[in-house]
Amino acid sequence: MSIDPTDPRSPSRQIADDLRAAIEAKRIAAGEKLPSESELVEQYKTAPQTARKAIALLKNEGLVEGQRGRGVFVVQQPPMIRVGSDRYARHLRTAGKAPFQAEVELMGLKWRQEVIELAEVPAPVWVAEWFGIPEGTLVFVRRRRTWIEQTPTQLADSYYELETVAGTRIREEDTGPGGGYARLEERGFRLTRFREELETKMPTPTEVSALQLRAGVPVVHLHRIAFAGDRPVEVFQSIMAGDRHTFAYEFDAPE
Amino acid sequence: MSIDPTDPRSPSRQIADDLRAAIEAKRIAAGEKLPSESELVEQYKTAPQTARKAIALLKNEGLVEGQRGRGVFVVQQPPMIRVGSDRYARHLRTAGKAPFQAEVELMGLKWRQEVIELAEVPAPVWVAEWFGIPEGTLVFVRRRRTWIEQTPTQLADSYYELETVAGTRIREEDTGPGGGYARLEERGFRLTRFREELETKMPTPTEVSALQLRAGVPVVHLHRIAFAGDRPVEVFQSIMAGDRHTFAYEFDAPE
DNA sequence: CAGTGGTCTAGACCACTAC
DNA sequence: TAGTGGTCTAGACCACTGA
């Protein structure tokens, strides 16, 4: 392994490509250590900063992770949580499970929610649009962070019109068995339909620390609207760690 | 604006945070130029490499884009293509539109597909699993790249069992009006159900060049299985540019 | 031709780990 | 204490843009 000066790829790129190939061919397995910076310098006869840059490229792809004083290691992919369109099944709610909880417990994992904020706030534009109310009207928001085992995985905000949640446990820390959706149904909002929209992008630094994301891990922005008949009763936004979630939808062929 | 040595954030991070704030507050609008490297060096009284690193951080977030000889510019978000669960509607196929085509033309955009490979290949593991056949059995694959206007947006592979596509136009460059699904239905496979699975990750360098991705743009891996009754007739994989697609699913509340 | 970004070289200090 | 990664400083060359 050495650098080919006639290669149009820059030296740092060549080193990165070599290492990536080694990782993909499992010559360096998940959890194993990459050659150290000084070893790369010696192997490739290059400057330390060039070796560093090669490693930086791999970090930004989410393939490797540096640990100060120890080395750079091939990332162990964390277990994926499958988020499916069948998780809103009513039978789960009547069994006292909130949608996300059901999903996670199915995989034998421990689940925890941390309530960050319960407040009345002026409705953001897109929330107001779904509710069909003027922008800035007061709405109730539940902000929370979801943990699975020891890792945060999701930042979730649920918005409700004030009269929808007046006097319900949705305004309290603990919404009770079955979660918020169970409380809505008790209030007579029979949830009939859901709409979900997904986007992906790189996280902001705030998101990186709130979700303890490694470099090179994108996030998924999930928007959900829960309908009771034609009426949107909950508008939901979630930012989820991209390396810990897959999304599955199953549907019949529309006519 | 200057660097605070007591701040726990590193200088490059402080500069990046300042610039990001300016971008988010639209003090620097989309398409506008950031201060040049030398201007940053002067403003913050720092070394050029530190300013460079700050800019590199923003690039990896997909917020800015460097243009050699011109400057660093705030990224213009490209228009998003909405990929919805209603795009498989049969009435579109009978109208001669392939699913993706219908979606895109609805937005008034021009659409083009470039066939990369038509071949019989040994089935990859996950494809074999869905078809319920031994790994390595020969299957037919259509690999193609989809362009919208002047930009590539999707790398798509469709897998079929050999007997499913024998003697059909699915094996040819041009599948004819309504696309591959229309041909399957003509053959008697009435498509009744779809399953889609989504994941997101950072692209490989190969994907970066094939999709002409900017730094800091993740990709979405979409897997789809098309069922005729209980039988999977097409297994599909697509890698899509994360900054050009949103995904929308609408479904009734399961019982 | 001056200005700008992209990359490399060279050397330094710090924080942390493992022995 | 030696080895490792993380960051900064300093200086250089090249490729490209725009006046």
Account of the protein in words:
The structure is a homodimer of 255-residue chains. By secondary structure, chain A is α+β, with helices and mostly antiparallel strands. In chain A, helix 1 packs across helix 3 (48-60). In chain A, a hairpin with a 3-residue loop joins strand 1 and strand 2 (71-74). Chain A is elongated. Chain A starts with 10 loop residues before the first helix and ends with a strand. The model of chain A has no long low-confidence stretch (mean pLDDT 90). The first copy, chain A, is 29% helix and 33% strand. Chain A has helices spanning 11-24, 37-44, 48-60, 90-94, 99-106, 125-131, 162-165, 179-186, 205-210; strands spanning 64-67, 71-74, 81-84, 111-122, 138-148, 151-161, 193-201, 219-228, 231-241, 245-252. The first copy, chain A, has a 6-stranded antiparallel beta sheet with strand order 4-5-6-9-8-7. Chain A binds a DNA duplex (19 and 19 nucleotides) through residues 10-12, 36-38, 46-50, 52-53, 55, 66-72.
What are the defining features of this structure?
DNA-binding; 255 residues; two-stranded antiparallel sheet; elongated; homodimer; alpha+beta; 9 helices
Short description:
Two copies of one chain form a homodimer. Chain A contains nine helices and ten strands.
Provide the fold topology.
2 copies of one chain form a homodimer.
Chain A: H1 11-24, H2 37-44, H3 48-60, E1 64-67, E2 71-74, E3 81-84, H4 90-94, H5 99-106, E4 111-122, H6 125-131, E5 138-148, E6 151-161, H7 162-165, H8 179-186, E7 193-201, H9 205-210, E8 219-228, E9 231-241, E10 245-252
Parallel strand pairs in A: 3-10
Antiparallel strand pairs in A: 1-2, 4-5, 5-6, 6-9, 7-8, 8-9
Chain A binds a DNA duplex (19 and 19 nucleotides) through helix 3.
